[in-house]
Amino acid sequence: MAGRVLVVDDDLSLRQFLKNMLRRAGYEIETVGSGAEGLKVLAANPADVVVTDLTMEGMDGMEVLRAVKQRWPATEVVMITAHATAENAVEAMKQGAHDYVVKPFNVESLKVILQKAFEKKAMREENLTLREALKDRFGYGSMVGRSEPMQRVYDLMDRIKDTPVTVLITGESGTGKELVARALHYEGDRQGKPFRSINCGAIPENLIESELFGYKKGAFTGAVRDNPGIFASAAGGTVFLDEVGEMPLATQVKVLRAIQERRIKPVGGFEEVPVDVRLVAATNRNLTDEVRAGRFREDLYYRLKVVSVELPPLRDRLSDLQPLCDHFLRSYGDQFGKPGASLDDDTRSHLLAWDWPGNVRELENVIQRGIALSRGLVITTDCLPPEIQTSGPSAAVGLPTSVGEGGMDLDAVLEGYERLLLESALAQAGGVKKEAARLLGLTFRSLRYRLEKLGLDEG
């Protein structure tokens, strides 16, 4: 069947005619003689399209239209009437009618209107599915981590996602700053609008202004047509300025004005254009130092950091390492034709002992390498980069194998090793303390005592 249509009309002969005509066209048809009866039918079995007469006793077509749009907003409504007026037509369209047909109508014209109504409904559903898919991809669900530092990040993001407030995301390279920007957009109330990003350090200084604000045809050599630029093309959505600390000072002045005035002027243009965007910026530089050095405008800095989201480095949330590994193993295992890929215990210990200067991005690359080099589904230490192969529990804490001439601080050495093994067990257990105690052969009370002694207990 092409779709389900409900016909609401108090004219029996017209109902019968439409039923026969639309059934031959391949539609599933149901007809009723009143608006109230139509709503009962819809409550039991919703339709894709409702075709309703405008003038009926009791509930008229306009009331049917309002009720349908309130209770079943995805259902399209086509109005039919023998007494057409401009006022009725305008009101019907304002209330959400798909189209307006005047009696006597052309059968083929009605078929075309119905076809377009079904196409409109299908497109709306497809867009909704796409938005949900984008939300799944870029929402909080794609930000892997259950550690306390990441929970604080999620809480802050959840509180600001539906506001127009400007956000500055800081953190070391590889911590996932763009992922935060996308999550703010796709989890927030601008999710149905465009998300546009630009890496301020990757665009030549003489081109960045035209990329941001657009340009007019003939503004410079090669400008063969108008270009709206990032800000204008993101209307109603989000502009993400990655590596904003790399932005030239001359461009910083114009970005500051865009934030303050909500207006931009394209290169080569004479008139300013209003813009409605939510601005999110990110940097791995210390912008306070950049301001002191005169490389970044102080007024723009404070405009950008209305809310600041600081992402912790991976070494400060090692309890998230195992969930991150599992995430990348699933993702790249499927891509590389090795579903079910895993790490052996020795490899996991080496990963836990590494300091991760490249953060999550480095871990992602290491897992890709491990899957590609593994001879089977289990990644062993020989698949790791050489610098990580030489790391390990003893290397990570400088565990000596002899006392040495100058003596040693045995308590400090043992405490460092104990800390590493406790963190490793917690990471492997996904933060579940009872499971970590089992892995270490300790009672739960003993584990709690050791965690509190070393300041590792999150309460």
Walk me through the structure.
The protein has 459 residues and is α/β, with parallel strands linked by helices. It has 4 domains: 127 residues, Response regulator (Rossmann fold); 172 residues, P-loop containing nucleotide triphosphate hydrolases (Rossmann fold); 72 residues, Helicase, Ruva Protein, domain 3, CATH 1.10.8; 59 residues, Homeodomain-like (Arc Repressor Mutant, subunit A, Orthogonal Bundle). 48% of the residues lie in helices and 12% in strands. The chain contains 20 helices and 14 strands. The protein has a 5-stranded parallel beta sheet, with helices on both faces. Helix 4 links the parallel strand 4 and strand 5. Helix 18 crosses helix 19. 31% of the residues are buried.
CATH structural class of the largest domain: Alpha Beta
Low-confidence stretches: none
In spatial order, strands of the major sheet run 2-1-3-4-5
The radius of gyration is 31 Å
| Count of separate DSSP helical elements | 20
Provide tags for this entry.
five-stranded parallel beta sheet, extended, 459 residues, Helicase, Ruva Protein, domain 3, Rossmann fold, alpha/beta
